[in-house]
Structure formats: structure tokens, C-alpha cells
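Supplementary Methods S3. Complex input for the flavin-adenine dinucleotide-bound model.
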Amino acid sequence: MRVLICGAGIAGLTLAWWLRRGGAEVTIVEKAAGPRSDGYMIDFFGSGYDVAERMGVLGELRGIAADIGELVYLDGNGGRAAGLRYGSASAAVGGRVLSVMRGGLESVLRSSLDPGVEIRYGTSVGAVRDVPEGVEAELTDGTVSRAGLLVGADGIHSVVRRLVFGPEERYLHPLGYHTASYLIRDDELAGRIGGRAMLVNVPDRQAGLYPVRDGRLAAFLVHARGGTAPPADPHAEIMARYGGMGELVDRVLAHCPQDPYYDCVAQIRMPRWSRGRTILIGDAAHAVSLMAGQGASTAMGGAYTLAVELLGADVGEALERYERRMRPFIAGKQESGRAAAGWMVPHRAWRISVRNRLFRLADLPGSGAVMGRAFRRLSGSIVPAA
Ligand SMILES: Cc1cc2nc3c(=O)[nH]c(=O)nc-3n(C[C@H](O)[C@H](O)[C@H](O)COP(=O)(O)OP(=O)(O)OC[C@H]3O[C@@H](n4cnc5c(N)ncnc54)[C@H](O)[C@@H]3O)c2cc1C
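Predicted complex, serialized as C-alpha cells:
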């Protein structure tokens, strides 16, 4: 089977790995000019962790994971509002959780790929046509590629989705927040933060700072803002929104580059993920949003599940079976993403205090069993137990 994947991100690389292992001929086109390794900090557990274990890359991921001892919530005056020791959270799921940079995860997946998988950087899909043997894609480098299956793994603003399923507005549902992230080199601040993740939260705004393995800090900002369109000047928007949140946030703002990563926080909801011999996976098909904290894990779980189906059956049947298995799983993750939004960055001060009180309770000795149950429910995996 010949498969063309658009997007060398988390979902695309995972799918390529499993399909190649099953003997498929795989080409990936990626619009970025070359491999990237940075991004933002992600929590990695559930399906993603299970798939990484089956791929034999957990050791490498542990090697790049951030060493975070505690998650600390601060109020707008810099006072400690709540804290949660990572050790107790991690113990609740038997240690099966890591904090890694998204780009680091991507690098590990890429370097584990069989060299037989071709990745064409600086290339995208320009047009798609159905042909008797599958699908024909016109690529932006001027070539034409024929495959038995085209997979759109090109993220929340997928071009394959637009070309085959129609405009983004039909499927993208904003959750009422925008987000930004960037990396900081500030040794004095890193020393002060130590091995802690710091989150400053006031109504409608949250500014977070995570220690990265190499000594840098990853800034992670979320604020309430409707609509999907980014502001004309994201840097100016960030300065205006996050000013007045205390000395720590001011320091983070002083490092903000002119062109930080910036996007709306949204989910992708579609009635079907495949049409003919084209299928969407990962964020392109069913972004759960950063509020769910499991987009990368879900993307890996879906890619693995699709590969298992494709390698065992006729393509049409495999796509049907994939859809039936994944739908209820994704519906649950999207529901928890929507439910988490109002607690992660509340609009009202009372919600922040209730949330902080719950965190303080969860951090008390003896609360491990309750937290374990909650976390296990949250981290439910699509990957069957080995
Ligand atoms: C701030 C933030 C925090 C997050 N925190 C977490 C977390 O804690 N845990 C978690 O699991 N997830 C988290 N996520 C979500 C997670 O990053 C995504 O769900 C995940 O990266 C989706 O993987 P993907 O492969 O589907 O898409 P992406 O990772 O977006 O990869 C898509 C790839 O396609 C490429 N591409 C895009 N357009 C084209 C095109 N036209 N042609 C060719 N290639 C193209 C891109 O360059 C990219 O390489 C977070 C997201 C954000 C923004």
C-alpha cells in the first residue's frame, strides 16, 4: 500500500512509523522548511504514553523530559494560592506521565522513523483528485503524487481538510480563549523558579512558566477572547492583556518576541473524518484543545489505531472500523476539554478560589486514591492493554 501523509507532526510521524513497520510505502510532505525542535511544554500520558511505549521510545522521552517537582498557582500579587506536587500526581498513575516539549516529542518520533520513509520539507498539498486506484495529489513543489490513501495530519488549520471537506469555519469551534507561547533564556529567573511550574491566574487570564530541560523557560499564556481571528499585532495584544499581573509576569512579558506562537483555543468537530480515499487524523480531524491537555496523546492514539486497522483490512473497511472505534473516545476527550476550560482559566474570582481549594485538598497526604481515580478517568487510553 502506498500512503501519502500531509504533515510531519505528532500524528503524521506516528502513523508513518506504524505503517512502515507493517510494510507500507510512506511519503510525508511537510510545509515547514525543516525539522523543528521547540514549541511549548506538554503533559504526556494516556494513549500517547502507551503508543510511545510500544514504539520503544519511552527511554528517549524520559531523557528529554522536564524535571518538574511542583505545580504552583500564584495570585495576581505573587502570593502562593495552591500547589500540587508532581510526584503525587504521577504516582497516582503509576508514573506513566511525562512533561516534554512538543518539539522534543516530534524529534524523538522523527529520529525513530525507518529511513525508508521519505519526508519532503517545504512542501504541501495544493489539490486533490479521486482516481480509480485511490487519490492523486498535486504538490506545491510542482510534482504529482498518487497513493492508495491520502492522510491529512496537518494540524488544526489543515489544508487537506479545506481541500476535501470544505472551509475551516464549518468545523472549527472556538472555546472563547486565545493562547500564546514562547521560550525564554533568563538564568536568574530560571534559578528562582527552580524545578517548579508557576501559573499566575486572575479572572480571564493565566500566565504560566515551565522549566525546560536545557535551562530555558517555556512561557504559556491563555486569555479570554472570542472569535478565531488573531489580533493584527499579537505582541501588542499580549502586552495589553497580561500587564498588571505582577513582577513575575512582567518579567515574562519583557522576553516576548515580536512573533510568538499565537492561536485561538478551539476544537475541530466533524461528522466524518474520511471521504473517498482521504482521511484526517490528529488535530486536523478532532482537535480536543489545550484545555483537554491530551491533544498530542490523542493524536498518537488515533494514528496507532488507524495503522492497526489499515494493516489488517481493505482500506474502505479499515476507515469505517477506525471511525467506529475512535468516535466515542474522541467525544469523551472533547467533552472534558470543554468542561475543563472554565476551571483552567475561570472568568470569575470565586471559581479560581474553588479550583485552588480543590488543588490544596488533592495535595494533602492520603488523597492519592481519590486523585488516582480522577486522573485515570481523565487519561483513559484508546490503546488496548498489552
Ligand atoms: C499551548 C498548547 C499546549 C498544549 N498542551 C498539550 C498537553 O499538555 N498535552 C497534549 O497532549 N497536547 C497538548 N497540546 C495539543 C497538542 O500540541 C496538539 O494536539 C498536537 O500537537 C496535535 O498533533 P498533530 O500532529 O495532529 O498536529 P500538529 O502537531 O499541529 O502537527 C501538524 C504538522 O503539519 C504541518 N502542516 C501544517 N499545515 C501544513 C500544510 N498545509 N502542508 C504540510 N504540512 C502542514 C505542521 O507544520 C506540523 O508539522 C497543546 C497545544 C497548545 C497549542
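The radius of gyration is 21 Å. Residues 315-344 form the longest helix (30 residues).
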